[in-house]
Amino acid sequence: MEIKRSGSQPSARGPGEWFTGTVRIDPLFGASAPARAAGNAVTFEPGARTAWHTHPLGQVLIVTTGSGLVQHDGGPVEEIRPGDVVWFEPGEKHWHGASPTTAMTHIAIQEALDGKAVDWMEHVSDAQYRAGHRAR
What we know:
By secondary structure, the protein is mainly β.
């Protein structure tokens, strides 16, 4: 048994290559072999979001606070709130982040395949983000 005490792992700023806006990543647990799943609490300030990306074995998001937005490639922008659980299929291109006016925190859980848990792509443009928000 292992207990990771709250605050025992340092927070990190979400790198600009993967995120737009201010994002904080708080590690929750890493994958210890033979397990492949890892989890982070990710906090997005208003307007902040991921770049488009995929996960080789899918991803689960559990919204804990605030108001956010998610979209899979070709689909509508959907609003997410505390208690919502989002599943992205393996290889499904998507993005997620905060609403324009409210911060959002979610727990993100994904498994690594051959040591890789995510493939990052292009940024979601301000125009795409604003257009998606207006469509809601």
